[in-house]
């Protein structure tokens, strides 16, 4: 999963030579995460491992859900007021 995230993020806006670097970094991050999970699983009991991993997966799911709700809110705002609302231009703070 990490490799897909790294390659997808790079391949959209960069040249083709940067894709192998992103794939290698994604694979390395996946191996490190897998090694950490394996080390934790081998040192803990099964019930502790399952409780911790379930909580981790729930946190990831909650983050994805909150991002989806935010995207729906932005979409509704853009459909009501138009996408040109934020490009009004200005010279003050935040513009």
Major sheet details = none
Count of the separate structural domains: 2
Based on DSSP secondary structure assignment, what is the total number of beta strands? 0
- SSE order: HHH
Helical proportion, percent range: over 70%
Low-confidence stretches: none
Family: Belongs to the oxidase-dependent Fe transporter (OFeT) (TC 9.A.10.1) family.
InterPro entries: FTR1/Fip1/EfeU
Transmembrane segments: 20-41, 48-72
Pfam families: FTR1
Protein traits:
3 helices, 2 domains, 75% helix
Description:
- The protein has helices spanning 2-11, 19-43, 46-81.
- It has 95 residues and is mainly alpha-helical.
- It folds into 2 domains: 1-43; 45-82.
- The longest helix has 36 residues, at 46-81.
- It is flat and about 55 Å long.
- 3% of the residues are buried.
Question: In a few lines, what is going on in this structure?
Answer:
The model has no long low-confidence stretch (mean pLDDT 82). The chain has helices at 2-11, 19-43, 46-81.
């Amino acid at each position: 999963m990490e490799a897909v995230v790294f390659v997808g993020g790079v391949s959209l806006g960069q040249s083709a030579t940067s894709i192998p670097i992103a794939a290698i970094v994604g694979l390395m991050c996946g191996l490190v995460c897998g090694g950490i999970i394996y080390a934790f699983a081998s040192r803990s009991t099964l019930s502790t491992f399952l409780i911790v991993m379930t909580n981790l997966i729930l946190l990831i799911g909650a983050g994805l859900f909150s991002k989806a709700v935010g995207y729906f809110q932005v979409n509704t705002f853009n459909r009501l007021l138009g996408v040109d609302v934020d490009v009004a231009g200005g010279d003050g703070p935040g513009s």
